[in-house]
DNA sequence: ACCTCAAACATTTTT
DNA sequence: TGTTTGAGGT
């Protein structure tokens, strides 16, 4: 009963709730993970079998953490049958078990976002469509959006509004692309991330026995980060929980920040409609942050209308006030941050790992990096391209994927001419077209290349050689483990030679990455003796960088976007770039719901801090080669002044003048002068000038994202000329003409 | 098949 | 501004 003693009364109630639907509203820093793990321990203590428990999380890391904590209290053999993992990994597991029911092989492989984009690209090319109208990224996103709302290419026909939108955007062939995309995935025995959810839902809808089987199996369902579930996830959960209704969802509506990828706060707000007899527990005590930080966060979030009422409080110390600083440029901001880190390290026993710098967009990291390097402060940037998405890694993994599933077309396309073996783009294109015509897989065409008259002798021989190479690896993979087969692949294909001989800095880093992959593989192979290659391929497809995180070992300052920081905590947090058009983001300004999401994002940022919080904004930001005039974010004015302090920076070199939040007029005059000086430079650029002048009130325009619209009015002149446009599909938006890239119709 | 250079593009991200 | 993409040359 040790685990119960560590809980407060509300946590205890939530943990001890055994039967029936329940929702835990867990404020930031309220011990959410502890409640989840304690609840699982409590279930096990009450003789509920491990194989009857399903626990869903959003990241592998969260799942791993929970499992570790549970294994501290229980012997492994009592917990090993808990189904604990991400939505995607759990559903992939179900789909592999039930593959025969949905006409898929068990060994299907998974397309990541890049593979999907390449597939869309090749479909568009194959259909001879204009890639200016059918932008691969846009099409992929739309397909993903539809799948996440349970709209298949078949049911798309029933959604007239969606078709209308495509018609307006002149994407009349969208439905056909979608359909081809679906059938190509099917024919290559591959699924994209969205399929893992969509196919699971279809499986549960179409196979009553299977549904009963899993409804019965999962007597207790726990879901973490419920506010981030999207529609299809909601549908699946609802189906699975429908029989026992022992569903426990944990989340915080105030931390819902993923609506741009389909998460809907509705799922948490409407929980009561699906489970009228539910119980709510509110975890309102914050164990993480000082009083100042908690109350400042409360003062921000209360500006949101759509939320569940709660009162987050803490017994922690008052703490230091939040320091808000205004600077002139992003460069100064970076210096301010790095100097402050240095300063705190001198005054206290803080280490690099106790600091985090959070920003709205990845692009902001550059100047911060520079300043940290200058000050010799070790840092680590999160985000950007993850390990498994690096070209050199994906190329090797593509060989692995082919060995697991020869129909995996995107994998085959990656390796057929890598390393270069004289099978050029033309030959590959011919192979693909032929495969499409014959409605067969690329690999089948390669296997039967002898009977096909499309190629000359040389090309044919090279293709046959490639085929023999793959067949050799296939043979070898029967006797070698994952580590050994990958070793064989990189030696035999020449990838090893190729990468070790590249002595450029990038080449060396690529070689190191390959080494790291091999190290990981060796460890994996030792732990998974059976079928290790296919298991490795399956697992790796759903793994991300954040899962192998090693911040604490490396003792460096953390740089990341606010999104990436969710769930983490640091003693000292810097939130930089608190400016209108940046945080809140420009694209969110016209829409109240989007602004509320940005506010939640700011709330998440604030609540990462345990002891000290620093917020800064600049009046000029260098962006895309130009200085942009900025004003303080509205969010700064929303923090109750009781908890903040507008402070003069210590470094005289940085701050010759007193720079305070509210010195709006005097400060800005100075800045406007510098801005004006730069103006002629922009105006002398003919292209820029013409582009801006041609837009008049009443002009019909087209925007890349918002589609067609009409300019209602114009504001300001010169570089900052803005247009208020009424879009047919997206309503009224205010856009900076310089960035909007509007097309005159 | 490889290189070079200019144009285009760039806004949050997990699986 | 930096990076990526693709066109055009060899």
Can you put this structure into words, describing what you see?
- The protein has 745 residues and is α/β, with parallel strands linked by helices.
- Helices cover 49% and strands 15% of the residues.
- The strands form 4 sheets. Strands 9, 10, 11, 12, 13, 14, 15 and 16 form an 8-stranded mixed β-sheet that branches. Strands 3-2-6-7-1-8 form a 6-stranded parallel β-sheet.
- α16 (291-301) runs antiparallel to α30 and α19 crosses α20 (409-415).
- The longest helix is centred in the middle third of the chain and has 23 residues, at 457-479.
- It starts with a helix and ends with a strand.
- The model is unreliable at 655-691 (pLDDT under 50).
- It binds a DNA duplex (15 and 10 nucleotides) through residues 58-60, 86-89, 92, 110, 112-113, 192-194, 196-197, 228, 257-258, 260-261, 360-363, 366, 383, 420, 422, 424-425, 541-544, 546, 561-564, 582, 585-588, 598, 601, 622-626, 739, 741.
């Amino acid at each position: 009963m040790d685990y119960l003693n560590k809980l407060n009364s509300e946590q205890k109630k939530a943990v001890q709730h055994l039967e029936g639907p329940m929702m835990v509203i867990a404020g930031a820093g309220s011990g959410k993970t502890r409640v989840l793990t304690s609840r699982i321990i409590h279930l096990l203590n009450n003789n509920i079998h491990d194989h009857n428990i399903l626990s869903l999380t959003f990241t592998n890391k969260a799942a791993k953490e929970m499992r570790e904590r549970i294994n501290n209290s229980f012997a492994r053999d009592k917990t090993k049958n808990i189904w604990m993992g991400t939505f995607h990994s759990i559903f992939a597991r179900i789909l592999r078990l039930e593959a025969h029911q949905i006409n898929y092989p068990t060994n299907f492989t998974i397309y990541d976002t890049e593979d999907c984009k390449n597939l869309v690209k090749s479909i568009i090319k194959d259909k001879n469509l204009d890639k200016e109208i059918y932008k691969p990224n846009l099409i992929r996103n739309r397909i993903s959006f539809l799948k996440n709302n349970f709209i298949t290419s078949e049911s798309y026909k029933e959604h007239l509004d969606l078709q209308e939108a495509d018609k307006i955007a002149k994407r009349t062939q969208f439905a056909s692309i979608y359909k081809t995309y679906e059938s190509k995935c099917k024919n290559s025995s591959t699924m994209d991330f969205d399929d893992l959810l969509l196919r699971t839902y279809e499986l549960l809808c179409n196979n009553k026995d299977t549904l009963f089987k899993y409804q019965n199996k999962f007597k207790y369902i726990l879901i973490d980060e419920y506010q981030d579930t999207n529609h299809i996830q909601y549908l699946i959960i609802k189906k699975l929980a429908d029989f026992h209704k022992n569903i426990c969802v944990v989340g915080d509506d105030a931390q819902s920040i993923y609506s741009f990828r389909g998460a809907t706060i509705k799922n948490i707000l409407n929980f009561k409609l699906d489970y009228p007899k539910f119980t709510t527990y509110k975890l309102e005590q914050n164990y993480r942050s000082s009083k100042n930080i908690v109350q400042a966060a409360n003062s921000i979030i209360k500006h949101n209308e759509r939320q569940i009422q709660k009162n987050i409080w803490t017994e922690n110390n008052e703490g230091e006030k939040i320091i808000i600083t205004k600077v002139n440029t992003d460069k100064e901001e970076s210096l301010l941050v790095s100097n402050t880190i240095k300063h705190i390290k001198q005054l206290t026993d803080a280490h690099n790992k106790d600091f985090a710098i959070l920003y709205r967009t990845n692009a902001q990291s550059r100047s911060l990096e520079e300043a940290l390097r200058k000050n010799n402060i070790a840092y680590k940037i999160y985000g950007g391209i993850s390990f498994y998405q690096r070209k050199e890694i994906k190329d090797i993994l593509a060989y692995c994927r082919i060995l697991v599933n020869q129909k995996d077309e995107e994998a085959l396309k990656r390796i057929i001419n890598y390393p270069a073996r004289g099978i050029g783009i033309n030959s590959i294109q011919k192979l693909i077209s032929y495969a499409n015509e014959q409605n067969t897989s690329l690999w089948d065409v390669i296997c039967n290349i002898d009977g096909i008259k499309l190629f000359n002798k040389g090309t044919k021989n090279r293709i046959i050689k490639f085929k023999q190479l793959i067949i050799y690896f296939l043979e070898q993979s029967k006797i070698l483990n994952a580590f050994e087969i990958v070793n064989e692949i990189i030696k035999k294909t020449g990838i090893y030679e190729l990468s070790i001989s590249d002595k450029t800095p990038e080449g060396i880093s690529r070689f190191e990455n390959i080494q790291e992959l091999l190290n990981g593989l060796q460890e994996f192979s030792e732990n998974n003796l059976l079928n290790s290659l296919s298991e490795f391929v399956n697992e790796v497809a759903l793994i991300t960088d954040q899962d192998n995180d090693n911040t604490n070992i490396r003792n460096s300052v953390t740089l990341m976007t606010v999104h990436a920081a969710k769930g983490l905590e640091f003693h000292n947090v810097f939130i930089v770039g608190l400016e209108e058009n940046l945080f809140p983001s420009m694209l969110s300004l016209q829409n109240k719901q989007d602004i509320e999401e940005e506010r939640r994002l700011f709330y998440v940022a604030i609540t990462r801090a345990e002891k000290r919080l620093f917020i800064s904004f600049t009046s000029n930001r260098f962006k895309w080669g130009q200085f942009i005039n900025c004003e303080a974010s509205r969010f700064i004015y929303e923090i109750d002044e009781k908890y903040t302090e507008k402070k003069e920076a210590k470094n005289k070199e940085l701050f010759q003048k007193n720079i305070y939040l509210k010195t709006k007029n005097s400060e800005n005059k100075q800045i406007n002068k510098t801005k004006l000086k730069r103006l002629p430079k922009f105006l002398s650029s003919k292209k820029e000038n013409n582009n801006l002048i041609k837009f008049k009130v009443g002009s019909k325009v087209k925007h890349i994202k918002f589609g067609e619209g009409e300019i209602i009015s114009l504001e300001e002149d010169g570089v900052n000329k803005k247009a208020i446009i009424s879009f047919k599909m997206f309503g009224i938006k205010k856009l900076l003409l310089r960035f909007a890239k509007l097309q005159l119709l």
